[in-house]
Amino acid sequence: MAEPSLSSTRAGRRPEGLMRLLLLAALAAPLLVLVAVFGTRFGLWSANFGLEMLTLKIGRILAFAGLAAALVAVLLAFRDMKRRGLYATAALVVAGATVATFQVQERRFAVPGDNDVTSDPAEPPAFSRAMQALRIGADRTASVGCEGLVSVPHQVAPETASAALEAAGFTVRGAAAFRADGSKEGFWFGLTHDAAVRIRPGRTDVRVAARRDVKVGDEACRLAKAVAAGLKP
Known about the structure:
This protein is α+β, with helices and mostly antiparallel strands and 233 residues long.
């Protein structure tokens, strides 16, 4: 039996090399997101650049380009499923999951919201001195109300306020007779939200404010309502 020629062997390797390139194209977006996350975490660039530019803009373009590459890989795989099927399947799964994740996050970030919300816009709860020291250089937008966030119509114990902060994912930074403070750091880009609970006779109010001027939809409002829910009897 005649052995395959060198030219035919090279011709057989070319489609396999192309499939690898298509798989790498599908992986480009998630790899860029990892670079953006670690770069932000290690202070190589700002959260605005890492999240808004690298992830939500450039990453989104690469995600849809990766999906197109995955579809090309699927079409090529029909000619030789044995050698190309694994590449095509991996590319399609990665690209599909990446695009779906981007779509979900974009809808989340597109929800109108403010970075500093409170249940008492007329007189927002103040952060303690220790919290103010942590918030040096933080976003200084005015506190506003948000839909569904209202004052709790009774006085709570500081222990109850601390427990409500912890239940909402905050780390308690301090508590006294008429207040409690906490902070919550985001898992991916390290975006931090600070919370203050002000306790008065017959009324308890909540404030949640982001430290950085990065738009993340209604995250501050969602966190504030979670704290307020823990204050209710």
